[in-house]
Amino acid sequence: MDSIGGRAGAATVFGEPITADGITIIPVARAGFGFGGGGDSVGGGIEVRPLGYIEISHGGARYHPIRDAWGHVIVPLTAIAAGLAAPWMIRSAIKFRRTIHR
After folding, report:
1. Which residue ranges of the chain lie beneath pLDDT 70?
2. What count of Cα atoms within 13 Å lies in the side-chain half-sphere of residue 13?
């Protein structure tokens, strides 16, 4: 596990830091690994997700996150769709309840 966990890092997937024109870019990622087994079989996996990068230049460092555009789009659209569908669902439930109790 130690040897596999030691390989589950940003550099494994995204490469080593890059330096050009006095600017160094260091990739930042979240890495995890797990194992499981049952019966006669054993399995495992590694997951590495990009989080952002650190830019080092002019004697300072700044973290730049990588934003998930879908997360910023899907959640609000789902909330809007649920809000628009709620009155229709309530009316349908009331009509259904009335037909059952006749």
Report:
1. 1-13, 102
2. 15
